[in-house]
Design goal:
Blueprint (H helix, E strand, L loop, with lengths): L8 H8 L6 H8 L3 H4 L9 H13 L19
Amino acid sequence: MQLMQRYGELLRTLWKKEVLQMKDKLIFFLNPDYERDFHDPFLMRDMEKACARILKATEADEKTVIYADYDCDGIPGR
């Protein structure tokens, strides 16, 4: 339980509710390995085209808008 003293109230609550019951699962959750946990974004269709277009717009000082969804991962909000 000493491990939990270092983390915030939300994680302590999850621990108590047994969402992250085992210590190894908690450590895995708190220490993501980006090589292990994320796939190559260039596996998405037309990602190379999108990157080339964004780079071109940036170099030409064009205004750009990127539309995204609002799902639970929160990535567009960053």
